[in-house]
Each structure stands twice: as C-alpha cells, then as structure tokens.
Amino acid sequence: MPKAVFVYNDALSQHVLREGHPMRPTRLRYTYELLSAYRAFELPGALLMEPRAATLKELSVIHDEEYICAVESISKGETTYSPARYNFVANGDNPPYEGMYEASVLSSGASIVAAEAVLTGKADTAFNVSGGLHHAARSWASGFCIFNDPAVIIGHMVRDGMKVLYVDIDAHHGDGVQNAFYTSNKVLTISFHESGRYLFPGTGDSTETGEGEGLGYAVNIPFLPYTGDEVYLEAFEEIVPPLITGFKPDVVVAQLGVDAHFMDPLAHLNLSSEAYTNMVTRLLELSPKLVALGGGGYSMDAVPRVWALEYGVLLGVEFPNDIPESYQKKYGIRKLRDEGPPEVSSEVSTQAGRFAMEGVDTVKRRVFQFHGL
Ligand SMILES: [Zn+2]
Questions:
Q1: Where are the domains of the chain?
Q2: pLDDT of 221-258, one tens digit each?
Q3: Which candidate, 308, 317, 366, places its Cα nearest to that of 337?
Q4: Which of 63, 156, 173, 261 does the annotation list as catalytic?
Q5: Is the pTM of this model over 0.85?
Q6: What are phi and psi of 126, to 5 degrees?
Q7: What homologous superfamily does CATH list for 4-371?
C-alpha cells in the first residue's frame, strides 16, 4: 500500500479571517472529520503528521523580511507598520486579524512538513490541505493568502538543485507562484483556471509563457464560466502528461483548490468530484514524486468531500459512497461523490470547449518547443 502523509491538527483551522468572510478554515476541520469518519488514518499506508511553524529564514526564500516582520507585528495589533501598505484592509479580501501570523506560518510549515516527508522518502506522497495559498506576493497579501507556501517549498527545492513542475487546478489563476518563478527554467508552472476576464486576479492568459530564461516555463489554460468535466479533463490531458514527459521534473507540486467545483459560491466553473479524482489519479501516475496542497474552495459541502476523495486516491483506496453516519448526522451530507455536474446547454459547452482548445493550441505553439515536444 502506498504511504501517504496527511498534515493536520486543529491549530490550522481555528482562526476566523472576519465574520462572513468566504475563506473559512473550519473546512479543514470538516475534511479531517470526514476522513476520520471513514477511519482513513487507521489504514496501513496513512500517516497523519503534525504541522510546525515555518521560520523567518524558510519564508525569506520567497518573501521580503520586512513583509514577514510586518505580518508578525500587525498580527499582534501593533501599529509600527501600516497594514494597507501590505494589502491588509479590514473590509477587503485580506483583513488583518489577531493571530494571522501564527496561522500563516503554521500552514506554510505544514507544506514544508509535507514536502520533507516526500523528499526524504518517508512517504510516497503527502497532502497539506491547509496550504496552496498561491496568490500571496513577495511583499504583500493577496486573494486570502498571506504567505505563498507553494512558492516557499518550490524555492527550497530549486535551491537544492531540483527541477519542479507545479500544477494548479484552483479556479483562480496561480499568479503568485507564476510570478515567483517567471524568469526561471527550473520551475515549470501550469495553471488551469477560470478566465481572468471573469474572475480574480484577472491574469493567466494563455499568452503568458514566461520571460528571459523562463520563456516557455509558464503555462496557462483559461476556461469560460460553466466549463465542465469533459472539456476541462481534455485540456488537462493535452497539457500535463506531455509536459511532465518533456520537462522531466524531479518533483511535482500540485495545488488542489476545489473552487472550480460546481457548488462553489465564488467561481463559475462546473467540475464534479469525478474530475478531481481523475486528475489526482493521473498526477499520481505521472509524477516522479508528488506533494499535494489544498487551496481555494468555499463550499462547505464540496470541499471536504473532494479532499477526502483525493486523499483516498493517494492512499490507493476508494471510500464507500455512503458517508459514515457520524458525519452525516453532524453535517447532513449523505453521499461522498457527486452524481455529475449540472447540465448546461450544448451551446454553452461548445463555446467552452472551443475556448479551452484555443488556449491549448496557444500553449502547444508557444511552449511545447522548449520541452522537445
Ligand atoms: Zn481559488
């Protein structure tokens, strides 16, 4: 049985960004409870690991020290730094809150624990559902993200001489990770997302392909709203397997945000749970080493189910579709898998397919040549 780490303790899910804020860390607790209800952590390959806080030195591979210190100070309620300078605004996407430093260094540290477990061979794969905070920039917060844990672990892998392929299936463009490595040929970033014409952060056009030495090492596949499983998976298959073969990474880091799910209240894509298990199965088959991270996902119904299913894929098990009674009773959710995404008109799906394939063609034309394809 493959060994798969799951990094979690309740300290990761206790904070509240702001009453009514869509990012609710309790979704991590729900995921843990759902997996516990399935007795997933008692399975032979399962390894439940505690997170630890990332250090200033670890974060500074990606972030400015001044920013890290500012987050720590603002988190204590001090007035030394101006929150707005770092994009912390009370009624905005990134409200400053007490304890945000501790919460953020812990979720980054959890990604470091996941990466270390895989790189040292302690486990075949690892999943940190509290990570994947892909929008954070070098010196400011963005899109509910304070520290960019995917970029932090990738930055350390690159320092250690590794080549890293980053795959991001969050509904939003993985701009922070792309920007961190935009001029590097050691990191190939691939982001699938709802087009920036319709959704934050507005970037991620298929013509963004890297710069300088990094030209050909950034890939973006935007989708129209209401794009469903079939079109999405076709684009994924056209892009990810050939690029893994061509680029030959030492490690694959996957950001597995669940906000492209049809139940998500913020984005407008139409994926079902089956699309997610399908993609994680493929990543597991294709990756020399796989570190999986969470990300967005704002449906308290869909997020725990999809992440539980994905951890099942990493463990090589299929959980029964009837959700165990303890979880059913507490949260009123009965089935683990979706019956499929909602139907859309054939006109909408034809347009979605055409738009996605335009992006795929652009990437093939502009990027594949850099990888011998
Ligand atoms: Zn997102």
A1: 4-371
A2: 999 999 999 999 999 999 999 999 999 999 999 999 99
A3: 308
A4: 173
A5: yes
A6: -150, 150
A7: Histone deacetylase domain (3.40.800.20)
